[in-house]
Design a protein that fits this description.
The chain is an alpha+beta fold and 67 residues long. It is 34% helix and 27% strand. InterPro entries: 4-OT, 4-OT-like_dom, Tautomerase/MIF_sf.
Length: 67
């Protein structure tokens, strides 16, 4: 039973985009690992930007502030 957890920042990921992620990742597991989609679980967590960091800095979400 595969369990995949996708974490993204909370920057307006739409319901349609989440649906496509779930379908796409499930299909990759079917194609690559021959997993049963009936037992494949995908969870998407939206993390507030202020709780996301990289390169030792808090993620701001804007290109201007990322520089």
């Amino acid at each position: 039973m595969p369990y995949i957890n996708i974490k993204v920042t909370d920057e307006g990921v739409t319901k349609t985009q989440k649906k496509e992620l779930i379908e796409g990742v499930t299909q990759v597991l079917v194609n690559v690992l021959d997993k049963d989609p009936q037992t494949t679980h995908i969870v998407i967590d939206e993390v507030p930007k202020e709780n996301w960091g990289y390169n030792g800095k808090q993620y701001t979400g804007t290109k201007k502030q990322q520089s």
